[in-house]
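Quick one, T. Sequence first:
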Amino acid sequence: MTRVSHFGQLLPGRRIVLFVVLAGFAALWPASTLHRTVQAQDETPAPAVAAPEAPAAAGDATAAEAPAVQSRSFLAYVANACGWFWGPAFLLVSFILVALIMMNLLQVRRDVLLPAQFVEEFEQKLNAKDFQGAYEFARGDDSFVARVLAAGMGRLSRGYAEAVEGMQEAGEDENMGLEHRLSYVALIGTVAPMMGLMGTVQGMISSFDKIAMSAVSPKPSELADGISTALVTTLIGLMLAIPAMVFHSILKNRIQRLVLEIGMVSEGLMGRFAAVGKQKTA
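Structure tokens:
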């Protein structure tokens, strides 16, 4: 009570309350900021009530010992955590992934694999009994269904069963080509988490190496680089793997649906040759 009364003689009651509140905010503000804070010293915080000898000097010392704040953008933080190796590696993989996804999206379309205009014109030629023209028209087209029909009509001279077998072989070959291009997306979806895991192991090794080589307990700021590399590489690996797996599943289901539809359309168009027997097209 004596100290409080003596301190009250130096500063009025309202000024004491205001001083304590400002000192508390000054102590808590660096810990609540969203930017990275580098501590200048590891001393314990001063008591909430200042010493009665020189309260003004204590306030000046608290302001002088305030930790310095270093801020940077999240992109700069990620680039610094990835380093000279993982940054370009993940950037290259991301470009390849986007290119593969766009290529497959443009290729696996109904207008490309099963164009309605080709089916209509091919059926018109069959209705007009222009079988040679239908065969040449199918050979000149580059779509999935055209190649299947051309392969089937090319074997009509051997019989309808041979024609159907030729259509099945051509369909399997085209389907394999589509799935082969799509498999690279699945490969990135598998490799990207492994790259992130490798970066995690490298970052943890770097942090533990600093602990082992330090004579005293290292500061947290000295271990932050390795831990940042470990976490950021894992995050980027997952960010690449998840879209790759999603697009691979979507495109694979679309390929299977279109291949089934192409098989039904081609068999329906070639079904009229079932009772014809051998038919020469060349």
